[in-house]
UniProtKB/TrEMBL annotation:
Residues 1-121, 156-189 are annotated as: Disordered. Pfam families: PP28. Residues 1-15 have a biased composition (Basic residues). InterPro entries: Casein_kinase_sb_PP28, HAP28. Residues 88-168 form the Casein kinase substrate phosphoprotein PP28 domain. Residues 24-42, 70-79, 107-121, 156-180 have a biased composition (Basic and acidic residues). It comes from Dufourea novaeangliae (Sweat bee). This is 28 kDa heat-and acid-stable phosphoprotein. The lineage of its organism: Eukaryota, Metazoa, Ecdysozoa, Arthropoda, Hexapoda.
Length: 189
């Protein structure tokens, strides 16, 4: 069945494929897949040439698809690439390393720290050292804190003694008062 033609507003011919042709192309693709499965998926470039080709009216789309597939499978070289060995200096090629080399490099190479990271580590070490000295009471701030604590303890002890004395005085006063009231009432204890 011939392809349909359509003239666009720019005066160019537009081609479209009829649904029947698309269905025929799909069937051809299915046949190819079946043929490959029957062959055991051992297709080589020679076997691909022996495959049944799409019908001449199937269009250039399926031909270009099969060409691109075969190029991607084979990794076909472009231009004179297969004739001239060119090495791109910007391309980084992965080098295979043995596990022993990797372990040695990890052990020997410690990552160099940036200035900010080094300063941060120094701050942390200095702070930890300060906390240790502070806990031991060797810093000026720790001595001042301990002196303040000693003064507060002394004030609290004095306040506790004073409260204790006032409590005893109140008890004695209460006792005398009860004794006086007992006497006044004429009761003997």
């Amino acid at each position: 069945m011939p392809r349909g033609r359509y003239v666009s507003h720019k005066g160019r011919n537009r081609h479209f494929t009829s649904p029947e042709e698309l269905e025929e192309q799909r069937r051809q693709e299915e046949k190819k897949l079946q043929w490959r499965k029957n062959k055991g998926e051992e297709t080589s470039s020679e076997e691909e040439e022996e495959e049944p080709k799409a019908s001449p009216g199937s269009g250039s789309e399926s031909d270009s698809d099969s060409d691109s597939e075969s190029e991607s499978k084979e990794g076909k070289a472009k231009g004179v690439e297969n004739l001239i060995q060119v090495e791109n200096p910007n391309r980084v090629q992965k080098k295979t390393k043995k596990i022993s080399q990797i372990n040695q490099s990890l052990d020997s190479d410690k990552p160099e720290l940036s200035r900010r990271e080094r300063e941060q580590l120094e701050k942390q070490r200095a702070y930890a050292n300060y906390q240790k000295l502070h806990a031991a009471g060797k810093t000026d701030e720790a001595r001042a804190d301990l002196a303040r604590l000693a003064i507060i303890k002394q004030q609290r002890e004095e306040a506790a003694k004073k409260r204790e004395q006032e409590k005893k005085q109140k008890e004695l006063a209460q006792q005398k008062k009860t004794e006086l009231t007992q006497k006044a009432l004429g009761k003997k204890s």
